[in-house]
Write a structure and sequence with these properties.
L-2-Hydroxyisocaproate Dehydrogenase, Chain A, domain 2, three-stranded antiparallel sheet, alpha/beta, binds nicotinamide-adenine-dinucleotide, Rossmann fold, six-stranded parallel sheet, globular, Lactate_DH/Glyco_Ohase_4_C, 10 helices, 48% helix, 342 residues
Length: 342
C-alpha cells in the first residue's frame, strides 16, 4: 500500500518535546506529530494547546496523543523522555533514571518499525544513544543523538557575532561529548572562504579560544539556572535534524553516532539523510584535538562500562525477586496442601 502520511513521534512532551512539536507545526515537514507521555493530563493539555496552533491555516500538520506502540511505527521517533538537570546538576547524573526509562520505552514500542530513525535528545545523550542502538535492535546508521549540534550552533552564533557575518557562513564544530569533555575543532574552522585567524584576527590573542570554549560548554547550565530548562535551541535543532532526514537533505552536522574505533557514541561530523547517518564525514584534527577526542571517548567508555554493570546487577536482582515470588507461591500451595490433609 502506498504510504500517505509522514509521522514524527515525540516521546516525552515536557519542555523540550512540546517545543519541538511546536517548531514542527510552524515549519511543517510531516503530516502528523504523535505525542506520548505517561502524564496523561499534561499530554492531553499539550495536544489541545498545540492543536490550537494548527488551526491558523498555514500548516497541514496534525497533532495527536498516541501510545508507545504506535510511536514505534513512526518515520522518526524523537526521545525527549526523561529527567532533566536540576540547577547545578551534571548531565551524567541523570544516567541511571533515564536509562531505566529508555529500557521501558523500547519494551513498550516493540516491535519497532525496521525503517524508523531514532533521534535521541534526552541526556546524557551520548550514553543513551549508545544503549538505544542496542535496545532497539535497529542498524547503527538509524540511531542518532543530537550530540554537539546545539553546542556547535552556539559556537557559530558567537563567531558570527565577532566576524560580523551570518551564522550559516561559518563552518565550526564542537565535537566529542555533549557535556564537559567536549572540545572545539579550532583547526577546522572556516568563515566563508577564510580561515579563522584571517577572518577574526583577535582569535590569536590569549584567552580568546578558552573564553569561547568555556561559554559554549557552560551555556546550558546558565540558562537552566535562570529558567529551569533549555528548550528553544534544542527544539529548533531537533526539528532541523528531522527535516534533513525526511527530505534526504544530506546536510553535514556534528551528531552523536556509534564510532566503531572508539567503541562509544560521540559527535563527529556526519552526512544526514533519509536513512539516518548516510556516512561519517572525514575530519582532519590536529594533534591536540585528536588527544581531546581520545580522552573524551575514554571517559564515555568508562561510563558505559559502569552502566552495563548496573544493568547486569538489575537483572540479577529481578531474577532473584522472581525466584523469591515462585518460592513464596510454592510455600503457600504446600501450606494449603498440609492444611487440607489436617
Ligand atoms: N541533547 C540536548 O542538547 C538537550 C537539551 C535540552 C534538554 N535535554 C534533555 O531532554 C530531556 C527532557 O527535558 P525537558 O526539559 O523536556 O524535561 P521535562 O521534565 O519537561 O519533560 C520530560 C517528559 O518526559 C516524560 N516521560 C517520562 N517517562 C516517559 C516515558 N516512558 N515515555 C514517554 N514520556 C516519558 C515525563 O513525563 C515528562 O513530561 C532531559 O533529559 C534533558 O536533559 C537535552
Amino acid at each position: 500500500m502506498p504510504k500517505h502520511k509522514t509521522s514524527i513521534a515525540i516521546l516525552g512532551c515536557g519542555d523540550v518535546g512540546s517545543t519541538l512539536a511546536y517548531t514542527l507545526i510552524l515549519n511543517p515537514i510531516c503530516s502528523e506529530v504523535l505525542l506520548v507521555d505517561p502524564k496523561t493530563e499534561l499530554l492531553e493539555a499539550q495536544v489541545r494547546d498545540l492543536g490550537d496552533a494548527t488551526f491558523r491555516g498555514n500548516t497541514g500538520c496534525k497533532v495527536r496523543a498516541g501510545t508507545h506502540k504506535e510511536a514505534g511505527q513512526a518515520d522518526i521517533v524523537v526521545i525527549t523522555a526523561g529527567a532533566k538537570q536540576k540547577i547545578g546538576e551534571s548531565r551524567l547524573s541523570l544516567l541511571s533514571r533515564n536509562l531505566h526509562i529508555l529500557e521501558s520505552i523500547f519494551s513498550s514500542m516493540a516491535p519497532i518499525n525496521p525503517h524508523t530513525i531514532l533521534l535521541l535528545v534526552a541526556n546524557p545523550v551520548d550514553i543513551l544513544t549508545y544503549f538505544a542502538r542496542i535496545l532497539s535492535g535497529l542498524p547503527e546508521s538509524q540511531v542518532i543523538g543530537t550530540g554537539t549540534s546545539l553546542d556547535s550552533a552556539r559556537l557559530r552564533g558567537i563567531l558570527a557575532h565577532k566576524a560580523e557575518v551570518a551564522p550559516n557562513s561559518i563552518d565550526a564544530y564542537v565535537l566529542g561529548e555533549h557535556g564537559d569533555s567536549q572540545f572545539i575543532a579550532w583547526s577546522t574552522i572556516s568563515i566563508g572562504t577564510a580561515p579563522l585567524a584571517l577572518a577574526i584576527p583577535a582569535s590569536s590573542e590569549p584567552g580568546f579560544k578558552e573564553d569561547i570554549a568555556t561559554h559554549t560548554r557552560g551555556a546550558a547550565a546558565a540558562i537552566i539556572a535562570a529558567k529551569g530548562c533549555t528548550a528553544y535551541g534544542i527544539g529548533n535543532i531537533a526539528a532541523s535534524l528531522c527535516k534533513f532526514i525526511l527530505f534526504d537533505q544530506r546536510t553535514v552536522r556534528p551528531v552523536s553516532f556509534y564510532q566503531p574505533q572508539l567503541k562509544c557514541c560521540l559527535s563527529l561530523p556526519a552526512v544526514i539523510g533519509r536513512q539516518g547517518i548516510i556516512r561519517a564525514m572525514p575530519v582532519v584534527l590536529d594533534e591536540n584535538e585528536q588527544r581531546e577526542l581520545e580522552r573524551c571517548a575514554e571517559g564515555l567508555r568508562g561510563i558505559i562500562a559502569g552502566a552495563e554493570q548496573e544493568m547486569r546487577a538489575d537483572e540479577v536482582l529481578a531474577k532473584a525477586l522472581e525466584a523469591d515470588d515462585l518460592l513464596g507461591d510454592e510455600t503457600v500451595s504446600r501450606t494449603a496442601e498440609v492444611d487440607s490433609e489436617i
